[in-house]
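Submission checklist for the structure archive. All mandatory fields must be present; incomplete records are returned to the submitter.

[x] Identifier: NAD(P)-binding domain-containing protein
[x] Organism: Ambrosia artemisiifolia
[x] Residue count: 150
[x] Sequence attached
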Amino acid sequence: MDNLSRGNIGAVKVLQDLFPEPGRLQFIYADLGDPKAVNKIFSENAFDAVMHFAAVAYVGESTLDPLKYYHNITSNTLVVLEAMAAHNVNTLIYSSTCATYGEPDKMPITEDTPQNPINPYGKAKKMAEDIILDFHKNSDMAVMILRLFQ
Ligand SMILES: NC(=O)c1ccc[n+]([C@@H]2O[C@H](COP(=O)([O-])OP(=O)(O)OC[C@H]3O[C@@H](n4cnc5c(N)ncnc54)[C@H](O)[C@@H]3O)[C@@H](O)[C@H]2O)c1
């Protein structure tokens, strides 16, 4: 699922050509900021798991337009989690970022490094991580958070 705001349908078409079996690679054009659309997608499909990677992802842009980032990253993650909970989908892989670490005192960064993000992009992802982990504590949801470095 993608709203193609930054994505390229050509890449999906290449993959669909490689895996042409009916239903093997379904593409759904929708915006994660639209809870009704997201819930409809969950109602019409049977998902084993969600891999949530769809987001805006530029540090510089996030400082110029922070509300866009908190909405697109933090608020949309809440929409995804609520839809998963409502439809009993219990496995989530979430794409976070090394920007959640900010500027650590010690290198290299490890999973024990404190997360102190210094820009809206990193802060929005850290908030989304916190929401996911708080929900995970009192639910059956299995969660993996990837903090990607470029
Ligand atoms: N590429 C990296 O090095 C890197 C590093 C750290 C984190 N990440 C994270 O990985 C994920 C993917 O990054 P990428 O580099 O592949 O970016 P990308 O821009 O290539 O892919 C993100 C996709 O999300 C879609 N999207 C954005 N907002 C949407 C919305 N509201 N609804 C539906 N689709 C939406 C865009 O159209 C785009 O296709 C992001 O969450 C990003 O924060 C990537």
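[x] Structure attached
Curator remark: The first helix runs from residue 9 to 18. The chain is about 45% helix and 10% strand.
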